[in-house]
Specification:
Layout lengths: L3 H11 L5 H16 L3 H19 L35 E3 L13 H15 L1 H6 L7 E6 L5 H11 L4 E5 H7 L4 H14 L3 E5 L15 H17 L4 E6 L7 H5 L3 E5 L4 H10 L8 H10 L5 H16 L8 H11 L6 H8 L2 H10 L7 H8 L3 H21 L1
Parallel strand pairs: 2-5, 2-6, 3-4, 4-5
Antiparallel strand pairs: 1-3
Helix pairs in contact: 1-3, 2-3, 8-9, 11-12, 13-14, 16-18, 17-18
Length: about 400
């Protein structure tokens, strides 16, 4: 279909708030494309529809604030923050719902369903109380840096229309080691007083193994103080801990969290959806999105965002003309060497024939010879010849070897 990238962008913009009639027309377009042999374009519309459905399943309309969920006073922008007595430095920052992203983070179906189950508990508190149980009020989110853990916690707070008391515990330990236990007590006293979500970022900075011979006695006392305060907060409000290093956590800390959610590095389809979500206002062709998803094997959402930003810069400096994608990927791989999978780097900087063959043979990326040619700025026959040359050379090597 001519101008499909524009049609795809219009569908992507319309579908999040689409009426049933609009959604039906997009489905009709998808089916028409599929029946007409445009399976890749039909698949692109299916992805847009599925992503919108997942977002709607955990949309704000499904959340109803309950006074039984949190207690205390309302936080305002003028509420004084707790501070360290010696330095007067604030021990936390307040993030209000209107300052956070309203769009749900993109995860695979398994993670999205798990998050939905927690949200369902919070939105059906009365039903839980009737059968003698309570919603999960403590949650530990862990995984590699850049996988969206903090963004997820802020998004969950937004769904509940709750301000976040954000505490980055790494700074607390490094700056105030001698008075850390007292500061933790002050933080929890503050959080317990107000209706809020207490978000403990860089959780491993304090919650380290108490039997670690490298740690001084002060840290062991800090961990004990943290455990006591976590216990005292039960039944008062929501508490979320975030860590990049779950192996450093004391086993007693793990037991304090009812939900223990691991956020993995995204798989291919999720990487493609993440790249598309960061693309606006640039319209990125579907074949380019698939190559970006293939290229970012093992990457996190934050790293994919960085690559898409590089793509958009390359487009902008050429007056809206898309730069050859392989050049952009090579530029990114050069400037972000540690972020790129070694196998992908080798293919990218090796002979183009090997790269073309890898793209042709990898079913996950699902690129045709024409797609590969468009991406590389070559015609289909040239791509075919370069792949054939590589295969002939390997056959000769096999015979001579």
């Amino acid at each position: 279909m001519d101008h499909f990238p524009i049609i795809q962008a219009l569908c992507r913009a319309a579908v999040p708030n689409a009426s049933p009639a609009v959604r039906k027309q997009i489905e009709r377009l998808r089916d028409a494309l599929k029946n007409g042999g445009d399976s890749k374009q039909a698949a692109a519309l299916t992805t847009i529809l599925n992503n919108a459905e997942r977002s709607r399943e955990i949309a704000p309309s499904r959340i109803e604030r309950s006074k039984a969920l949190v207690s205390g006073e309302d936080l305002s922008r003028n509420t004084p923050l707790p501070v360290d007595r010696e330095t007067a430095a604030p021990l936390a920052e307040i993030i209000f719902p209107d300052a956070t992203d309203e769009n749900a983070p993109i995860f695979d179906e398994r993670i999205s369903n798990a998050i939905e189950s927690v949200v369902d508990e919070w939105s059906n508190i009365e039903a839980l109380f009737e059968v003698g149980v309570h919603p999960s009020l403590t949650c530990l989110i862990y995984g590699a840096p850049g996988t969206g853990k903090t963004r997820l916690a802020l998004w969950m707070a937004r769904r509940l229309d709750l301000p976040v008391v954000l505490v980055r515990l790494d700074g607390l330990v490094s700056s105030f080691l001698g008075t850390t236990a007292r500061n933790i007590g002050n933080l929890f006293t503050f959080a317990n007083r107000f209706k809020c979500m207490l978000l403990l970022d860089e959780f491993d900075a304090i919650a380290k193994l108490r039997d670690d011979p490298q740690e001084v006695g002060e840290i062991k006392r800090v961990v004990n103080a943290l455990l006591q305060n976590l216990d005292s907060r039960r039944g008062v409000g929501l508490t979320i801990g975030i860590t990049n290093h779950p192996n450093l956590l004391d086993p007693a800390v793990w037991r304090r969290f009812e939900v223990q959610l691991e956020i993995p590095r995204p798989e291919f389809d999720v990487r493609k959806a993440i790249a598309e979500s960061f693309s606006a206002p640039v319209i990125i062709p579907d074949s380019h999105l698939r190559l970006i998803a293939w290229f970012t094997e093992g990457a996190t959402g934050a790293e994919i965002e960085t690559l898409v930003r590089t793509y958009k810069k390359a487009t902008a400096v050429r007056d809206g003309q898309a730069r050859e994608l392989l050049d952009t990927l090579r530029q990114f791989a050069t400037l972000n060497a540690a972020r790129v999978h070694s196998e992908r780097r080798e293919l990218l900087f090796g002979g183009t024939g090997r790269l073309f063959r890898a793209l042709r043979d990898d079913r996950s990326v699902n690129l045709s010879m024409s797609d590969i040619g468009e991406i590389a700025g070559k015609d289909k026959s040239t791509v075919s010849r370069q792949i054939g040359k590589i295969e002939e050379d390997q056959e000769d090597d096999s015979i001579n070897g």
